[in-house]
Design brief:
- With 190 residues, the chain is an alpha/beta fold.
- It has a single domain (7-189), classed as P-loop containing nucleotide triphosphate hydrolases (Rossmann fold, 3-Layer(aba) Sandwich).
- 29% of the residues lie in helices and 24% in strands.
- It is built from five helices and eight strands, in the order βββαββαααβαββ.
- The strands form two sheets. The protein has a five-stranded parallel beta sheet with strand order 5-6-7-3-8, with helices on both faces.
Amino acid sequence: MFTIQECKVNSFVKRYKNHEVVLNGLTFDQQITIIKGENGSGKSTLLKAMAELIRYDGDIVMNKSVSYMHEHTTLPSDITLQVFFDGLLGLQKKQNKEKIVELCTLFQLLDKLEEPINALSKGMKTKVNLIQCLLEEKAIYLLDEPFNGLDEQSVYELTNYMKQHQNKMFIITSHIFFDTSMIECGVVYL
């Protein structure tokens, strides 16, 4: 059985113009970890650093096989969902059409494939953003605010999906209340 590797933030400093994020001694050793904290505490900043999307000072030790879901969904608006997913498949080394169908079924988007992306609701766009991230076969998934805009059923489907993929690690940020008793997970407070 796959063993979850630890991710450690030994030291982390990210300086902004009027703000500094300083984190030390954080350990992520659960299959699912939720990062909680006030606005500005560094949740999103830390995930971006873990995904190597920003520069920072410090030491983060982790498996570099990651897929990242950005909090703010930026999707092309003038194409259909099917064209978008076909484009994603074209970028992959190993095309996985079955996984797109599986994820679209899971998040109730199969009947939306021929609709333009700009016609989708906020929650549906969040689902597309999740699919875009989960489509990648990686060891670690960094999900920034994945529950934002999701209905109760979709939250259940996402948490169930994470529980079923025990060979993967999920590190999640959340501003909104999330009942951690729904899943066995670790919680890191910033």
